[in-house]
Design a protein that fits this description.
The protein is of the alpha/beta class. It folds into two domains: 2-230, Spore Coat Polysaccharide Biosynthesis Protein SpsA, Chain A (Alpha-Beta Complex); 244-425, HAD superfamily/HAD-like (Rossmann fold, 3-Layer(aba) Sandwich). The chain is built from twelve helices and 19 strands. Helix 2 links the parallel strand 4 (48-53) and strand 5 (73-78). The protein is globular and about 70 Å long. The protein starts with a strand and ends with a helix. The relative contact order is 0.10.
Length: 426
């Protein structure tokens, strides 16, 4: 398998650090960032790497050489003039004849690249950007996908005010088919995120691979310090999907947002006080934050799936504005009671996903490799508590309802997360 590392940027945001050293050679935990990348690529079966460089290219080629110490064959390709991320890779047209991976040279990451390539190949995708939720979606390039992960919209920053966006940020990691070169003009300055991805997605040939794994650029002194701290603390390696992680599962209505009957319109969705900070604290504790919510508004024909998705985009936008993010949202659109004239019969069924059944939990465990022991479910109803028990989770009741079987109970989500933090500290 082949990979490309785009290492041509000047790294001006790093100030004096890049005056005499190109950004990919900035030391991070004792090794250059690009060395971490090469070791990751080797770990997942890559054997040939092209490094495309421009600024201080000689420093990079001297430091990395032919790649033999990494168990790789490395070839250095130097840009004659800056042509952007896509314009640079056009130089490899005809040399990359099978599906390949592209990394930006300032990204620190530890992810299961086999999962990425398996997804990319299964979808027969031409362009597969790696996407993830982050704590600053307002200044990120965001991508929107349908239920099958086909990309249906690209939202470059800055975003339109008053619009609700799904928190799926483009990480700067891609898998490509050789067909991508049909969408790239030679000798023209162009960027994957702003030019190529929209072009390919309009043809229906781009899919987004969504992952909670650690992928972060170190392009500013503050981010470099944060990434190094995360690396030394085991956070970077610990988020690889080959390793199990614990999660806090969250009911939606009455836990994250105000309970207003059945919320069927975006304007009826309102975050509860402190909910965003509580989710942010879950993120910082290292747990996955996963919503699992029964939404019979679909079965009752009170709103469409598209409207429900808009409600969830509003939830993610409001949380993101306060530096919080959800790793995944699962919902059950079904309801078992039939026979009402206004119902949507397609969703009137006794399903496996409606709480207190564990279908949504089971899907999250499969998708995110969650360790149930030591994970929690925070809810406000008997269904939530019974679901937690059925799944083997610690059940936390919020809101003070008359509910049996909860392991812990408290006033609201902030208090619940405080209890989790105390237990983790002990």
């Amino acid at each position: 398998m082949k990979a490309v590392i785009l290492a041509g940027g000047r790294g001006t945001r790093l100030g004096a650090l890049t005056e005499k050293l190109p950004k990919p050679l900035i030391p991070l935990a004792g090794l250059a960032t690009i060395e971490h990348q090469l070791m990751l690529l080797k770990r997942y079966g890559v054997d040939e790497v092209f490094i495309l460089s421009g600024y201080l290219a000689g420093e990079i080629s001297c430091a990395i050489g032919d790649g033999v110490p990494f168990g790789l064959h490395v070839e250095h390709v130097i840009e004659k003039e800056p042509l952007g991320t896509a314009g640079a890779i056009a130089q490899l047209d005809g040399r990359l004849t099978e599906d390949f991976i592209v990394l930006y040279g300032d990204v620190m990451m530890d992810m299961d690249l086999r999962r990425l390539m398996d997804f990319h190949l299964a979808k027969k995708s031409v362009c597969t950007p790696v996407l993830h939720p982050n704590d600053h979606p307002q200044d990120s390039d965001l991508v929107e996908t349908d239920a099958g992960r086909r990309i249906v919209a690209v939202h470059p920053k800055p975003h339109q005010p008053g619009v609700w966006y799904k928190n799926l940020a483009n990480t700067g990691v891609y898998a490509f088919s050789p067909e991508i070169f049909k969408f790239i003009e030679h000798g023209v300055k162009q960027d994957f995120a702003k030019n190529i991805l929209p072009r390919v997605s309009q043809k229906g040939l781009a899919y987004g691979y969504v992952t909670p794994e650690y992928i972060k650029d170190m392009g500013t002194p503050e981010r470099l310090a944060k990434v190094e701290k995360d690396f030394m603390g085991g956070v970077v390696a610990g988020r690889n999907l080959q390793r199990k992680r614990k999660a806090v599962f969250l009911d939606r209505d009455g836990v994250i947002n105000r309970e207003r009957g059945l919320v069927s319109r975006p304007e009826d969705f309102e975050l509860l006080p402190g909910a965003a900070k509580a989710v942010r604290d879950i993120n910082r504790l290292g747990f996955l934050a996963v919503v699992v919510t029964n939404q019979p508004v679909i079965a009752r024909n009170m709103c469409t799936l598209e409207t429900l998705e808009t409600i969830h985009r509003k939830m993610e936008t409001l949380l993101g504005a306060e530096g919080a993010y959800l790793d995944a949202v699962y919902f059950c659109p079904h309801h078992p009671d039939k026979g009402y004239p206004e119902e949507n019969p397609d969703y009137k069924t006794d399903c496996a996903c409606r709480k207190p059944k564990t279908g949504m939990i089971d899907s999250a465990v499969k998708d995110l490799n969650i360790e149930l022991k030591g994970s929690y479910l925070v809810g406000d109803s008997q269904r939530d508590i019974d679901c937690a028990k059925n799944a083997g989770l610690t059940a936390i009741l919020v809101g003070g309802g008359k509910v049996r079987g909860a392991d812990l109970s408290c006033a609201d989500l902030p208090a619940a997360v405080g209890l989790i933090a105390q237990r983790e500290h002990k």
